[in-house]
Design a protein that fits this description.
By secondary structure, the protein is of the alpha/beta class. The protein has eleven helices and 17 strands. The relative contact order is 0.16.
Length: about 350
C-alpha cells in the first residue's frame, strides 16, 4: 500500500493528522500530489453525520489540484509532472445511459464519490483530498489549463461545476437575465460564470452590505431579499434564477422572480421542499436542480474558466488549520472559499 499524511475524523469531533493508506496504482491510475484542496459545506455535513465507531476513517476533501507523481502502465493522457484537478466524482459504471451520455454524475448505480464512496473494484471506502496524495483513475482527472492558479482553481471542481451545469443546460448567454440567490462559495462563482457567459446578472441576498462585492464580481445589481418592495419590483424578471442557498428556505419568493417560461434551479439546498403548484402554473415556470458535472462538462468548464479568467475568491490556510477553517465555515466567516495548502504535510510523523 502507498502511504501519505492527511487529516481524518475517527472518534473525534476534530480532524487529526494521521498516516493514510492508498491503493497501489492500477493500470489506469494516477498518483497525484495534492497541493491545494477546497473546504466545502459538504465536508461539514459529512463530519456531522460521521459515525465515530465506523471502521473506516472519514477523510474529507473533494475539490483539489496537484501534480502527477506516478502513472499506471495503461495511462496515456498524463505524464509525471502534469498539473491536474480532481472533483467530487472518481468513478462510475461507464455503461448506463447517463454515463454513455457523458453525465457520469448521474450514474444509475451512483458515482463513486471522492471520499466516503465505495471503490468499485475492492469495496474499500474512498479517502478524500485532505491529504498529501490521492490515487485516481485517469478518466476522472482533468488537465489543469495554463493560466489557472492552482489554489483558486480547486473550488471550481465542486462549487464551480455545480453551478456551471445548470447555466449551460438552461442556455444562459448574451441576452439572458440571470439572478443568483445567495452569495457564498457557490453563489460567487455562479455570478462570475453567468457574467462571463454574457448574461445580465443580479444577486439576491439577505445581506445588503455585499452589494460592493456583487458589483466587483460583475453583477449589475443586488436585491435585498428581506425587502418586500425590492422583491415585488423584480417579479417575473429573470429567465433563470440559480438558488445557491444552503439552508432550508421557502422557494415561493424566488419563483415569483422567474419570468414566463423561466426556471428556478435549486443547487444549494438538497433536502425536502414544499411549494404550491400555482407558483409554477402562473407563468409556466419550471423548477429544476443539478449536481456536480460529467466528465465532458467538467473539462469544458475548466477551459472556459481559463479562457475567461474565472476562478474562486479564496482564503488559503495551511492544512494544519483545517479545524479553524471548518469552524469559521460553520459561522459563514469566509468570502468566499477556504482552500487548504497541503504542503505542510511534507515530512514528519502523523
Amino acid at each position: 500500500m502507498r502511504t501519505s499524511l492527511g487529516w481524518h475524523a475517527a472518534g473525534s469531533a476534530e480532524l487529526r493528522r494521521t498516516t493514510l493508506e492508498r491503493r497501489e496504482l492500477r493500470p489506469d491510475d494516477l498518483a497525484v500530489q495534492v497541493d491545494f484542496c477546497g473546504v466545502c459545506h459538504s465536508d461539514l455535513h459529512a463530519l456531522q453525520l460521521h459515525d465515530p465507531e465506523a471502521k473506516a476513517p472519514l477523510v474529507p476533501g473533494h475539490e483539489f489540484t496537484g501534480v502527477v507523481t506516478a502513472t499506471g502502465p495503461e495511462v496515456t493522457a498524463f505524464s509525471v509532472g502534469d498539473r491536474v484537478a480532481v472533483g467530487n466524482i472518481v468513478d462510475s459504471c461507464g455503461e448506463c445511459a447517463m454515463c454513455t451520455a457523458g453525465q457520469e454524475n448521474f450514474c444509475y448505480s451512483f458515482p463513486t464519490l471522492t471520499y466516503g464512496g465505495t471503490d468499485r473494484q475492492d469495496g474499500s471506502i474512498t479517502l478524500g483530498g485532505y491529504s498529501r496524495e490521492y490515487v485516481v483513475r485517469e478518466a476522472f482527472a482533468y488537465r489543469l489549463p495554463a493560466g489557472l492558479d492552482p489554489a483558486a482553481a480547486a473550488p471550481l471542481m465542486c462549487a464551480g461545476v455545480t453551478v456551471w451545469e445548470p447555466l449551460r443546460a438552461l442556455g444562459v448567454g448574451p441576452g439572458s437575465r440571470v439572478a443568483i440567490a445567495g452569495l457564498g462559495g457557490l453563489g460567487h462563482l455562479a455570478v462570475k460564470l453567468a457574467v462571463a457567459l454574457g448574461a445580465a446578472t443580479t444577486v439576491i441576498s439577505r445581506t445588503p452590505d455585499k452589494r460592493d462585492d456583487a458589483h466587483r464580481l460583475g453583477a449589475d445589481d443586488l436585491i435585498d431579499s428581506t425587502d418586500g418592495e425590492q422583491m415585488a419590483a423584480a417579479r417575473d424578471t429573470f429567465d433563470v434564477v440559480i438558488d445557491t442557498i444552503s439552508a432550508a428556505h421557502d422557494l415561493a419568493p424566488y419563483l415569483k422572480l422567474v419570468a414566463m417560461d423561466g426556471t428556478l434551479s435549486v443547487v444549494g439546498y438538497l433536502g425536502p421542499v414544499t411549494l404550491e403548484t400555482t407558483d409554477l402554473l402562473i407563468g409556466r415556470k419550471s423548477l429544476s436542480s443539478a449536481g456536480s458535472g460529467g466528465r465532458r462538462a467538467t473539462a469544458e468548464m475548466l477551459q472556459f474558466c481559463a479562457d475567461n479568467g474565472v476562478a474562486a475568491d479564496i482564503e488559503v490556510l495551511p492544512s494544519s488549520q483545517v479545524n479553524t477553517a471548518l469552524d469559521r465555515l460553520r459561522r459563514n466567516d469566509v468570502r468566499y472559499r477556504f482552500v487548504l495548502d497541503m504542503s505542510d504535510l511534507d515530512g514528519g510523523d502523523a
